[in-house]
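haha ok so turns out i had the wrong file open the whole time. this is the CORRECT one, sorry everyone. sequence first:
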Amino acid sequence: METTRQNKIARLIQKELSEIFQLQTMGMRGVLVSVSACRISPDMSSCRVYLSVFPSEKAEEIVKNINDNTKQVRFDLGNRVRHQLRIIPELKFFIDDSLDYVDNIDRLLKK
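then structure:
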């Protein structure tokens, strides 16, 4: 169970990361990266970020690229939230495949 502080920090990180990814993917036509969820540890030292990527065929490639550039993303996040947070958590990015799961269930139910 997450505390109120964890929820507030997770929402702040989610909002700022979504803006960072929106600016970074402007040059890539036909690709949409959104931050679907953030889960922060109780000691505020690490954050698991779940990304939803459209089209889903490019999801693994994009998330791998983001994980390779985690230092830069964390630096950009630190510049944006430096007045709200003292320590910027370590970021780990994962694919959020819940939309694919829902589509699969819908497709199976229609058969």
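The chain is about 50% helix and 20% strand.
again sry for the mixup
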